Amino acid sequence: MTEAAISIRNITKRYAPTGKQDEGKLALDDVSFDVPLGGIFGLLGPNGAGKSTLINIMAGLVGKTSGSMSIWGFDIDRDRRNAKASIGIVPQEIVFDPFFTPAEVLDNTAGFYGVPKSERRTDELLAAVHLSDKADAYARSLSGGMKRRLLVAKAMVHSPPILVLDEPTAGVDVDLRRQLWELVVDLNKRGVTVVLTTHYLEEAEELCDRIAIINHGKLIADKTTRELVAMGREKVVVLTLDRDIDVAPAHEAFSKSEITGDRSVAITYDMDRMNAGDVLTLLNSQGYSIVDVTTREADLEDVFVQLTSDRAS
Ligand SMILES: Nc1ncnc2c1ncn2[C@@H]1O[C@H](COP(=O)(O)OP(=O)(O)OP(=O)(O)O)[C@@H](O)[C@H]1O
User: Fold this and answer.
1) CB-based contacts of 11: which residues, under 8 Å, 6+ apart?
2) CATH number, position 167
3) Which InterPro entries does the entry link to (predicted)?
4) 82-138 pLDDT per residue, tens
5) Ligand 1 pocket by C-beta < 6 Å: which residues?
6) Protein residue whose Cα sits closest to atom 29 of ligand 1
7) Minimum CA distance residue for ligand 1 atom 3
8) ipTM score of the complex?
9) What average pLDDT score do residues 197-218 get?
10) Domain span at residue 248?
11) At what angle do helices 102-112 and 144-155 cross, to 10 degrees?
Protein backbone atom coordinates (compact mmCIF):
# COMPACT_ATOMS: atom_id res chain seq x y z
CA MET A 1 0.00 0.00 0.00
CA THR A 2 1.25 3.42 -0.93
CA GLU A 3 1.53 6.25 1.64
CA ALA A 4 0.19 9.04 -0.57
CA ALA A 5 -2.32 8.75 -3.41
CA ILE A 6 -0.21 11.13 -5.49
CA SER A 7 3.29 12.27 -4.62
CA ILE A 8 4.68 15.30 -6.48
CA ARG A 9 8.35 16.19 -6.08
CA ASN A 10 10.08 19.28 -7.49
CA ILE A 11 7.97 19.33 -10.64
CA THR A 12 8.99 22.03 -13.09
CA LYS A 13 7.38 22.55 -16.48
CA ARG A 14 8.59 25.00 -19.07
CA TYR A 15 6.68 25.18 -22.36
CA ALA A 16 9.91 25.70 -24.29
CA PRO A 17 10.11 26.10 -28.06
CA THR A 18 11.99 23.16 -29.66
CA GLY A 19 15.75 23.45 -29.15
CA LYS A 20 15.42 26.41 -26.76
CA GLN A 21 15.17 24.76 -23.35
CA ASP A 22 15.71 27.96 -21.33
CA GLU A 23 13.04 30.00 -23.07
CA GLY A 24 9.23 29.87 -23.02
CA LYS A 25 6.62 29.98 -20.30
CA LEU A 26 7.57 28.55 -16.89
CA ALA A 27 4.15 27.04 -16.04
CA LEU A 28 5.26 25.08 -12.93
CA ASP A 29 8.21 26.05 -10.78
CA ASP A 30 9.58 23.40 -8.40
CA VAL A 31 6.21 22.22 -7.10
CA SER A 32 6.15 19.53 -4.37
CA PHE A 33 3.21 18.19 -2.35
CA ASP A 34 1.37 14.98 -1.53
CA VAL A 35 -2.29 14.15 -2.10
CA PRO A 36 -3.16 12.01 0.94
CA LEU A 37 -5.10 8.77 0.57
CA GLY A 38 -8.86 8.74 0.81
CA GLY A 39 -9.75 12.44 0.98
CA ILE A 40 -11.09 15.14 -1.30
CA PHE A 41 -8.17 17.35 -2.26
CA GLY A 42 -8.64 20.80 -3.81
CA LEU A 43 -6.14 22.25 -6.25
CA LEU A 44 -6.82 25.98 -6.49
CA GLY A 45 -5.23 28.94 -8.20
CA PRO A 46 -6.12 31.87 -10.44
CA ASN A 47 -6.44 31.46 -14.22
CA GLY A 48 -3.14 30.47 -15.77
CA ALA A 49 -1.63 29.39 -12.43
CA GLY A 50 -0.59 25.97 -13.75
CA LYS A 51 -3.36 23.65 -12.47
CA SER A 52 -4.25 22.11 -15.82
CA THR A 53 -0.57 21.67 -16.63
CA LEU A 54 -0.15 19.65 -13.43
CA ILE A 55 -3.24 17.54 -14.17
CA ASN A 56 -2.07 16.98 -17.75
CA ILE A 57 1.28 15.75 -16.42
CA MET A 58 -0.62 13.29 -14.16
CA ALA A 59 -2.63 12.17 -17.20
CA GLY A 60 0.51 11.71 -19.30
CA LEU A 61 -0.70 14.32 -21.82
CA VAL A 62 2.09 16.82 -21.08
CA GLY A 63 5.73 15.95 -20.35
CA LYS A 64 7.37 17.56 -17.31
CA THR A 65 10.69 19.39 -17.66
CA SER A 66 12.09 18.01 -14.38
CA GLY A 67 11.08 16.50 -11.06
CA SER A 68 9.23 13.29 -10.30
CA MET A 69 5.69 12.13 -9.65
CA SER A 70 4.19 8.89 -8.50
CA ILE A 71 0.54 7.91 -8.68
CA TRP A 72 -0.63 5.23 -6.26
CA GLY A 73 3.05 4.49 -5.67
CA PHE A 74 3.83 4.04 -9.40
CA ASP A 75 6.45 6.40 -10.87
CA ILE A 76 5.01 8.10 -13.96
CA ASP A 77 8.28 7.61 -15.89
CA ARG A 78 9.30 4.12 -14.81
CA ASP A 79 5.82 2.63 -14.46
CA ARG A 80 3.57 4.69 -16.72
CA ARG A 81 1.13 1.81 -17.36
CA ASN A 82 0.29 1.22 -13.71
CA ALA A 83 0.35 4.94 -12.94
CA LYS A 84 -2.20 5.52 -15.70
CA ALA A 85 -4.36 2.62 -14.58
CA SER A 86 -4.55 4.14 -11.09
CA ILE A 87 -6.11 7.42 -12.12
CA GLY A 88 -9.31 8.53 -13.85
CA ILE A 89 -9.42 12.05 -15.23
CA VAL A 90 -12.51 14.13 -15.96
CA PRO A 91 -11.33 16.79 -18.41
CA GLN A 92 -12.48 20.41 -18.56
CA GLU A 93 -14.01 19.99 -21.98
CA ILE A 94 -16.76 17.59 -22.96
CA VAL A 95 -15.24 15.07 -25.36
CA PHE A 96 -17.06 12.11 -26.84
CA ASP A 97 -18.53 11.09 -30.11
CA PRO A 98 -22.13 12.43 -30.22
CA PHE A 99 -23.30 9.39 -32.20
CA PHE A 100 -22.50 6.86 -29.47
CA THR A 101 -24.94 6.12 -26.68
CA PRO A 102 -23.80 6.46 -23.04
CA ALA A 103 -23.63 2.64 -22.74
CA GLU A 104 -21.43 2.49 -25.86
CA VAL A 105 -19.22 5.35 -24.65
CA LEU A 106 -18.51 3.46 -21.42
CA ASP A 107 -18.08 0.12 -23.16
CA ASN A 108 -15.66 1.53 -25.74
CA THR A 109 -13.63 3.28 -23.06
CA ALA A 110 -13.46 0.08 -21.00
CA GLY A 111 -12.22 -1.71 -24.13
CA PHE A 112 -9.58 0.98 -24.58
CA TYR A 113 -8.34 0.34 -21.03
CA GLY A 114 -8.30 -3.41 -21.66
CA VAL A 115 -11.06 -4.20 -19.15
CA PRO A 116 -12.36 -7.70 -20.11
CA LYS A 117 -16.05 -7.81 -21.14
CA SER A 118 -16.95 -9.93 -18.10
CA GLU A 119 -15.53 -7.27 -15.76
CA ARG A 120 -17.14 -4.23 -17.35
CA ARG A 121 -19.43 -2.26 -15.06
CA THR A 122 -21.38 -0.27 -17.63
CA ASP A 123 -24.83 -0.70 -16.00
CA GLU A 124 -23.51 -0.09 -12.50
CA LEU A 125 -21.69 3.09 -13.59
CA LEU A 126 -24.70 4.43 -15.48
CA ALA A 127 -26.81 3.85 -12.36
CA ALA A 128 -24.19 5.58 -10.18
CA VAL A 129 -24.36 8.73 -12.34
CA HIS A 130 -28.19 8.52 -12.65
CA LEU A 131 -28.15 7.84 -16.37
CA SER A 132 -29.64 4.34 -16.51
CA ASP A 133 -32.69 5.61 -18.40
CA LYS A 134 -30.42 7.26 -20.98
CA ALA A 135 -28.24 4.18 -21.58
CA ASP A 136 -29.33 3.88 -25.20
CA ALA A 137 -29.93 7.54 -26.11
CA TYR A 138 -27.49 9.34 -28.42
CA ALA A 139 -24.89 11.23 -26.38
CA ARG A 140 -25.70 14.37 -28.38
CA SER A 141 -29.26 14.34 -26.98
CA LEU A 142 -28.06 14.56 -23.35
CA SER A 143 -28.23 17.83 -21.43
CA GLY A 144 -25.00 19.56 -20.39
CA GLY A 145 -25.31 18.18 -16.86
CA MET A 146 -25.93 14.63 -18.11
CA LYS A 147 -22.86 14.86 -20.35
CA ARG A 148 -20.74 15.95 -17.38
CA ARG A 149 -22.02 12.99 -15.35
CA LEU A 150 -21.24 10.66 -18.23
CA LEU A 151 -17.68 12.04 -18.24
CA VAL A 152 -17.35 11.09 -14.55
CA ALA A 153 -18.57 7.54 -15.33
CA LYS A 154 -16.16 7.39 -18.28
CA ALA A 155 -13.24 8.30 -15.98
CA MET A 156 -14.23 5.43 -13.66
CA VAL A 157 -14.56 2.53 -16.16
CA HIS A 158 -11.24 0.99 -15.14
CA SER A 159 -12.08 1.35 -11.41
CA PRO A 160 -9.15 3.65 -10.57
CA PRO A 161 -8.54 4.43 -6.89
CA ILE A 162 -8.04 8.13 -7.76
CA LEU A 163 -10.46 10.43 -9.61
CA VAL A 164 -9.26 13.84 -10.82
CA LEU A 165 -11.77 16.47 -11.95
CA ASP A 166 -10.48 19.53 -13.81
CA GLU A 167 -13.06 22.28 -13.23
CA PRO A 168 -16.06 20.02 -13.70
CA THR A 169 -18.57 22.70 -12.76
CA ALA A 170 -17.36 25.60 -14.91
CA GLY A 171 -20.44 27.06 -16.58
CA VAL A 172 -22.78 24.49 -14.99
CA ASP A 173 -25.88 25.82 -13.19
CA VAL A 174 -26.34 25.60 -9.43
CA ASP A 175 -28.57 22.49 -9.38
CA LEU A 176 -26.28 20.50 -11.65
CA ARG A 177 -23.24 21.58 -9.65
CA ARG A 178 -24.92 20.22 -6.52
CA GLN A 179 -25.75 16.93 -8.27
CA LEU A 180 -22.20 16.57 -9.52
CA TRP A 181 -20.71 17.22 -6.10
CA GLU A 182 -23.11 14.73 -4.51
CA LEU A 183 -21.80 12.18 -6.97
CA VAL A 184 -18.19 13.05 -6.10
CA VAL A 185 -18.87 12.82 -2.35
CA ASP A 186 -20.58 9.48 -2.91
CA LEU A 187 -17.60 8.08 -4.84
CA ASN A 188 -15.28 9.38 -2.12
CA LYS A 189 -17.34 7.62 0.55
CA ARG A 190 -16.85 4.42 -1.42
CA GLY A 191 -13.09 4.87 -1.04
CA VAL A 192 -12.05 6.85 -4.12
CA THR A 193 -9.46 9.58 -3.49
CA VAL A 194 -10.67 12.73 -5.26
CA VAL A 195 -8.62 15.65 -6.60
CA LEU A 196 -10.53 18.60 -8.01
CA THR A 197 -9.88 22.06 -9.32
CA THR A 198 -12.63 24.63 -9.09
CA HIS A 199 -13.09 28.36 -9.25
CA TYR A 200 -15.95 28.17 -6.74
CA LEU A 201 -14.13 28.70 -3.49
CA GLU A 202 -17.17 28.16 -1.29
CA GLU A 203 -17.50 24.69 -2.84
CA ALA A 204 -13.83 23.93 -2.21
CA GLU A 205 -14.31 25.02 1.38
CA GLU A 206 -17.34 22.79 1.80
CA LEU A 207 -16.04 19.72 -0.03
CA CYS A 208 -12.27 19.50 0.37
CA ASP A 209 -10.45 18.37 3.47
CA ARG A 210 -7.11 19.60 2.16
CA ILE A 211 -6.20 22.32 -0.32
CA ALA A 212 -3.08 23.28 -2.29
CA ILE A 213 -2.90 26.72 -3.91
CA ILE A 214 -0.73 27.40 -6.95
CA ASN A 215 0.01 30.93 -8.11
CA HIS A 216 2.24 31.82 -11.08
CA GLY A 217 3.44 28.19 -11.20
CA LYS A 218 4.56 28.14 -7.55
CA LEU A 219 2.98 26.26 -4.65
CA ILE A 220 1.98 28.93 -2.12
CA ALA A 221 -0.11 26.86 0.31
CA ASP A 222 -0.68 23.18 1.12
CA LYS A 223 -2.82 22.87 4.23
CA THR A 224 -5.98 21.41 5.65
CA THR A 225 -9.01 23.51 4.71
CA ARG A 226 -9.49 24.35 8.37
CA GLU A 227 -5.90 25.63 8.73
CA LEU A 228 -6.21 27.64 5.55
CA VAL A 229 -9.43 29.35 6.60
CA ALA A 230 -7.87 30.10 10.01
CA MET A 231 -5.11 31.98 8.20
CA GLY A 232 -7.59 34.73 7.36
CA ARG A 233 -6.13 37.76 9.07
CA GLU A 234 -9.00 39.97 8.02
CA LYS A 235 -12.45 40.49 9.36
CA VAL A 236 -15.37 42.38 7.91
CA VAL A 237 -17.62 44.64 9.96
CA VAL A 238 -20.82 46.05 8.45
CA LEU A 239 -22.13 49.17 10.21
CA THR A 240 -25.48 50.90 9.96
CA LEU A 241 -25.10 54.57 10.89
CA ASP A 242 -27.55 57.18 12.14
CA ARG A 243 -27.24 59.34 9.04
CA ASP A 244 -26.16 59.28 5.41
CA ILE A 245 -22.49 58.89 4.62
CA ASP A 246 -20.85 60.27 1.42
CA VAL A 247 -17.22 59.26 1.86
CA ALA A 248 -16.15 55.82 3.02
CA PRO A 249 -14.07 56.07 6.22
CA ALA A 250 -10.35 55.51 5.71
CA HIS A 251 -7.64 54.10 7.99
CA GLU A 252 -4.32 52.39 7.29
CA ALA A 253 -5.53 49.18 8.97
CA PHE A 254 -8.53 49.00 6.62
CA SER A 255 -7.87 46.89 3.54
CA LYS A 256 -11.27 47.79 2.13
CA SER A 257 -13.93 50.32 3.06
CA GLU A 258 -17.05 50.77 0.99
CA ILE A 259 -20.43 52.40 1.24
CA THR A 260 -23.02 49.63 0.85
CA GLY A 261 -26.18 51.77 1.26
CA ASP A 262 -27.22 55.31 2.22
CA ARG A 263 -26.41 54.69 5.86
CA SER A 264 -24.26 51.58 5.79
CA VAL A 265 -20.57 50.85 5.30
CA ALA A 266 -18.62 47.59 5.11
CA ILE A 267 -15.10 47.78 6.47
CA THR A 268 -12.51 45.01 6.09
CA TYR A 269 -9.77 45.37 8.68
CA ASP A 270 -6.62 43.58 9.75
CA MET A 271 -7.38 41.60 12.94
CA ASP A 272 -3.75 41.83 14.03
CA ARG A 273 -3.94 45.61 14.08
CA MET A 274 -7.38 46.47 15.43
CA ASN A 275 -10.62 44.97 16.67
CA ALA A 276 -14.28 45.75 15.95
CA GLY A 277 -14.38 48.06 19.01
CA ASP A 278 -11.57 50.18 17.54
CA VAL A 279 -13.50 50.50 14.26
CA LEU A 280 -16.61 51.67 16.14
CA THR A 281 -14.57 54.16 18.22
CA LEU A 282 -13.05 55.56 15.05
CA LEU A 283 -16.48 56.10 13.44
CA ASN A 284 -17.79 57.65 16.68
CA SER A 285 -14.86 60.04 16.73
CA GLN A 286 -15.86 61.12 13.21
CA GLY A 287 -19.30 62.09 14.55
CA TYR A 288 -21.36 59.04 13.55
CA SER A 289 -23.57 57.04 15.89
CA ILE A 290 -23.77 53.32 15.20
CA VAL A 291 -27.30 51.91 14.86
CA ASP A 292 -26.40 48.31 14.04
CA VAL A 293 -23.28 46.12 13.68
CA THR A 294 -22.60 42.73 12.09
CA THR A 295 -19.23 41.05 11.64
CA ARG A 296 -18.08 38.24 9.39
CA GLU A 297 -15.05 35.93 9.71
CA ALA A 298 -12.69 35.61 6.77
CA ASP A 299 -13.59 32.65 4.57
CA LEU A 300 -11.53 30.75 2.03
CA GLU A 301 -12.19 33.40 -0.58
CA ASP A 302 -10.65 36.10 1.64
CA VAL A 303 -7.61 33.90 2.31
CA PHE A 304 -7.25 33.08 -1.36
CA VAL A 305 -7.28 36.77 -2.29
CA GLN A 306 -4.73 37.53 0.44
CA LEU A 307 -2.39 34.74 -0.67
CA THR A 308 -2.61 35.31 -4.40
CA SER A 309 -2.72 39.10 -4.47
CA ASP A 310 0.50 40.84 -5.37
CA ARG A 311 0.69 42.48 -1.98
CA ALA A 312 0.98 39.02 -0.32
CA SER A 313 4.47 38.49 1.03
N1 LIG B 1 0.79 24.28 -24.65
C2 LIG B 1 1.22 25.41 -24.09
N3 LIG B 1 2.20 26.12 -24.64
C4 LIG B 1 2.65 27.25 -24.06
N5 LIG B 1 2.19 27.74 -22.88
C6 LIG B 1 1.20 27.07 -22.29
C7 LIG B 1 0.66 25.86 -22.84
N8 LIG B 1 -0.31 25.41 -22.02
C9 LIG B 1 -0.38 26.31 -20.99
N10 LIG B 1 0.52 27.29 -21.16
C11 LIG B 1 0.77 28.42 -20.23
O12 LIG B 1 1.16 27.90 -18.97
C13 LIG B 1 0.54 28.64 -17.90
C14 LIG B 1 -0.28 27.70 -17.03
O15 LIG B 1 -1.43 27.27 -17.77
P16 LIG B 1 -2.50 26.23 -17.18
O17 LIG B 1 -3.49 25.96 -18.26
O18 LIG B 1 -1.79 25.09 -16.58
O19 LIG B 1 -3.16 27.11 -16.04
P20 LIG B 1 -4.49 26.83 -15.17
O21 LIG B 1 -4.12 27.12 -13.76
O22 LIG B 1 -5.02 25.49 -15.47
O23 LIG B 1 -5.49 27.93 -15.72
P24 LIG B 1 -7.09 27.86 -15.91
O25 LIG B 1 -7.68 27.97 -14.54
O26 LIG B 1 -7.35 29.07 -16.72
O27 LIG B 1 -7.42 26.58 -16.61
C28 LIG B 1 -0.27 29.74 -18.56
O29 LIG B 1 0.51 30.91 -18.58
C30 LIG B 1 -0.51 29.22 -19.96
O31 LIG B 1 -0.63 30.28 -20.88
Assistant:
1) 28, 30, 31, 32, 54, 57, 64, 66, 67, 68, 69
2) 3.40.50.300
3) AAA+_ATPase, ABC_transporter-like_ATP-bd, ABC_transporter-like_CS, ABC_transporter_ATP-binding, P-loop_NTPase
4) 999 999 999 888 777 778 999 999 999 999 888 999 889 999 999 988 899 999 998
5) 15, 25, 27, 45, 47-53
6) 48
7) 15
8) 0.96
9) 89
10) 233-297
11) 30
